[in-house]
Amino acid sequence: MAASRIVIENCAIATVDANDTEYASGYVVVADNLIESVGAGSAPAGLENVVRRVDGTDHLLTPGLVNTHHHFYQWITRGLATDHNLFNWLVALYPTWARIDESMARAAAQGSLAMMARGGVTTAMDHHYVYPRGSGDLSGAIIGAASETGVRFTLARGSMDRGESDGGLPPDFAVESLDDALAATEATVDRYHDDSFDAMTQIAVAPCSPFSVSTELMRQGAELARRKGVRLHTHGSETVEEEQFCKELFGMGPTDYFESTGWLGSDVWMAHCVHMNDSDIAAFARTGTGVAHCPSSNARLGAGIARVTDMLKAGVPVGLGVDGTASNESGELHTELRNALLVNRLGAHREAALTARQALRLGTHGGAQVLGRAGQIGSIEAGKLADLVLWKLDTLAHSSIADPVVALILGAAAPVTLSLVGGRTVVEDNHLTTVDEDAVARSTRTEARRLARITAAG
Predict the structure, then answer these.
(1) Backbone dihedral region for residue 80 (phi beyond 0: left; psi -120 to 50: alpha; all else: beta)
(2) For residues 107 and 443, is the Cβ–Cβ distance under 8 A?
């Protein structure tokens, strides 16, 4: 059967390939779910079975954005504890989060996914680690929401087994036992993980953080992930307080602790990594451990500025993350492109910290590296999956910026004229085609109010 083709032409193209190839005016041909060709000028003549032609005049075509760290459930607890640092913020919100159920998790995931997809995300991930007793099938609800939205998705099946009575931050009724956490994680991998080239759903093993997880869960979690051939994810070196906690509890800093439990390697990525010294960065580079950089959340919680420039120079894989929407209320990854550039220029390297094109690479190819999918997504190259975003740059907000990549990164958030995931349309003219945005808004509002009532009732 002949391939169905989509032709996108007359647009600027930033391929984000190994050579950062760009075309001032070019084309991309999509054949079924793959990129068939990309180049300058007009598309080849005589293409067969072209089902759609898109005129990309005054647009920029990029790879789809890849989100590498998020907590979807937090969508229904936005706007709370707005002036707290990380530990105080967690203490303030854990009693509420510990009351989520399956209906809430589904609605929150729908809101989080819709907001990201509408803003150019074609591959999302969720680090879900709150599994209160009797809350239902939370993982299934989240994966179902991702399937409905139509984006590629990695569920980092999280866990916590260190409750308040063991010196952790979460309430005891919000944590699992070691055996239950491991069994549930393995069952999730067995049921949902797909390792095929064009996989829509993948699973990672993801104990939450050193201050909510036992050392045994870290060790056995790493063993489980490698036995199953899936990736590993956790929070690392987010705050000064975390470093102090690790030294007091384990007698070493976070990076040394992670290495001692098997949590450094090319199959591992960690969120935040704000407080890393030269030795920590060298260890990540040596082992190929990846980083999910979350500039807005780090600023919102006053955590600090991650040394992204130094990480990149050392060869550490770095992608971008929204982080949970209780510490990044907008929930949009395309704003993180701009914030990554601006926040890092406040650090030691100042204006030399990141360029606009480096920021775009973080949000596309860098994210694909971190998720272990750089061979399939993250750049516009023949043979890769057709996950593409066409950004409209002829509006008032961008009309006088000549460089389209600079317009996208430093200008206001650009509208998405078209977003494709494996050649399938997910966004058209800045609106989702897969879900009803208004219905999602109503559902998330209802579930947020219900959660607030339950929390208030104790």
Answers:
(1) beta
(2) yes
Q: What H or E segment, with its residue span, contains residue 203?
A: strand 201-207
Residue 48's alpha-carbon distances to 3, 5, 40, 52, in angstroms, are 8, 8, 20, 11
Distance CA 284, CA 129 (A): 24
Cα 327 to chain centroid distance, Å, stands at: 14
Distance CA 304, CA 452 (A): 30
Separation CA 236–CA 295 (nearest Å): 14
Which residues have CB under 8 Å from 49's CB, separation 6+?
Answer: 2, 3, 4, 5
pLDDT of residue 434: 98
Interatomic CA distance for residues 4 and 50, integer angstroms? 6
Three-class DSSP category at 159: strand
d(CA 303, CA 284): 20
Cα–Cα distance, 388 to 424 (Å, whole number):
10
Q: What's this model's pTM, rounded to 2 decimal places?
A: 0.97
Q: Do the Cβ atoms of 307 and 90 come closer than 8 Å? A: no
Tell me the per-residue pLDDT of 168-200, one tens digit each, with 9 for 90 and over.
Answer: 778 888 899 999 999 999 999 999 999 999 999
For residue 284, the Cα-to-chain-centroid distance in whole angstroms is 19
pLDDT at residue number 169: 77
What is the C-alpha to C-alpha distance for residues 111 and 103, in angstroms, rounded to an integer?
13
> What are the Cα distances from residue 166, in Å, to 95, 171, 175?
17, 10, 11
CB atoms within 10 A of CB 16: 24
Beta bridge partners of 28: 8, 38
In terms of Cβ atoms closer than 10 Å to its own Cβ (0-12, 13-18, 19+), residue 318 is buried
d(CA 179, CA 442): 38
85/13: higher pLDDT:
13
**Separation CA 252–CA 219 (nearest Å):** 16
3-state helix, strand, coil in the chain (%, to 5): 40, 20, 40
DSSP string, 210-252: TTTS-HHHHHHHHHHHHHHT-EEEEEES--HHHHHHHHHHHSS
Distance of CA 398 to the CA centre of its chain: 26
Cβ proximity of 331 and 33 under 8 Å: no
Residue type, 20: D
- Could you give the 3-state DSSP secondary structure of residue 105? helix
Asked if 234 contacts 292 with a C-beta cutoff of 8 angstroms, the reply is no
Instruction: Give the tens place of pLDDT for each residue, 248-257.
Output: 989 999 999 9
Query: Do the bridges between strand 424-428 and strand 431-432 make them parallel or antiparallel, or are there none, so unpaired?
Result: antiparallel
